[in-house]
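queue> holo job accepted (guanosine-5'-diphosphate)
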Amino acid sequence: LVRLRGRLSRSQNVFGKSLLSVLSRDRLDDDAWEEIEDSLIGADVGVEATGEIVGRLRERVKVLGTRTPTELRALLTAELVEALDPTLDRSLKVGGKPSVLMVVGVNGSGKTTTCGKIARVLIADGHSVLLGAADTFRAAAAEQLATWAGRVGAEVVRGPEGADPASVAFDAVKKGVDTGVDTVLVDTAGRLQNKVGLMDELSKVKRVVEKHGPVDETLLVLDATTGQNGLEQARVFTEVVDVTGVVLTKLDGTAKGGIVIAVQRKLGIPVKLVGLGEGPDDLAPFEPAAFVDALVG
Ligand code: GDP
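queue> job finished
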């Protein structure tokens, strides 16, 4: 929690300070409620979610006669945690032999980096990991994944530049099966110009991977700094593949950590991990209570 607090300090400043000053006022009149709404919307919580959260908060404040800033903060925190559905299972499914995780998302969202970071966590847990470089579209992607593999001690399977992504994915999982690796992580390309092309490519990758067995997780990587727009783009991926979890990256670089609430609400998929920097250890499991606490400040 301490670590998360430090890392989210930028979110905390913007989201927390204005909010706490409003909560500390003598009277919570309509203007004050509007300011609370504005600060939530400003933190990218989203208009709809904000309306519901503030509506429920007002109701509770009325019913309970809550007054002190500490009580108000606690009620707001509870509403935000509730909006994130704290009962959801956010663990990574890594039961298969090998477990197969596909990583999808828009180019630049942090897929390759996230593959490296996940490998790091799994290897530290005693798993063996193989990275499959099925992002054959971007010239440097395979190179970058290979660098990550070296850095964290994973194996890597890559094809020539411009190779068929599905064939690289197939080879990667096949090698994982043949060599008895615990987990295969498949990095994919995220060209968004053409939804049909993307759909064809990702479903083909998934299909060939499934020749070896089921895909355990399909993780959608989403750049938190792209806000509501990024969210719309991300939705396309959920229409194309069966996404089982979201990794929200670059939370270290945004004052708009409320996007987590919008993401989970709009996509209906649990945020499982958050990216907090470019280094190998800058990945954390997403925990709603700790996150909201850091956010509210
Ligand atoms: P891809 O095209 O989706 O594979 O994206 P990359 O993994 O190449 O990442 C794009 C850029 O975002 C790189 O410069 C990464 O170092 C950076 N990046 C990825 N995740 C994070 C994060 O959590 N925080 C920050 N600050 N940068 C990140």
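queue> The chain is about 50% helix and 15% strand.
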